[in-house]
Amino acid sequence: MSIVVRDVREHELDSVLALNNAAGPAILPLDAARLRRFFDHAEYFRIAERDGTMAGFLIGLASTAEHDSSNFRWFHERYPDFFYIDRIVVASRRRGGGVGRALYADAQSYSELRYPQMACEVFLEGANDPVLLFHGSFGFREVGQHVMPGSGIRAAMLMKSLCSYPWVRETYGDALPDTPWILQPRQAPAAQHRPTGTA
């Protein structure tokens, strides 16, 4: 069956929370209040459905977002403009079935019109070679490592240059066409979105 990627809906937050907190040590746990802040403020918050069931989700933020993650701050201190993937989670029974690639492809389609790079991190604790390989096969490269305060978890900090961005920026500047597939994927209730096409 096909994978459908769409905006998250408010009534699905409990399911998103359960999916996140069942993901294991490769994903930091969430509580309901923090997840609600993502729902209210994240620029990008979409889920993937397979066979009509939630199979995964991805949360992304602009480099200008107010976000207390030390990993986000690491990128913010070094790069002026990027789209940050705070977390991607795929249900254990759906891993290896293309859900992660569908979410990343959708996030890239959104971000390459607005940002020169995508950023994310992969924890280096445990057996995370498949996750690093996945990101490498999707074009991410390690640009450094960061040890998270408090937890001591070491993360590989990954960046991917978005090759379409320079052309889009040169051709359209601050005025992307008013076409449905280009619009913001969601309008978070309290978000302060960057204007469409603004660098």
TrEMBL record:
Coiled coil (residue ranges): none
InterPro entries recorded: Acyl_CoA_acyltransferase, GNAT_dom, UCP028520
Alphabetical list of Pfam families matching this protein: Acetyltransf_1
Keywords: Acyltransferase, Transferase
Signal peptide: none
Superkingdom of source: Bacteria
Molecular function GO terms recorded: acyltransferase activity
TM regions (residue ranges): none
Entry EC no(s): 2.3.1.-
Protein name from the UniProt record: GNAT family N-acetyltransferase
Organism for this UniProt entry: Novilysobacter selenitireducens
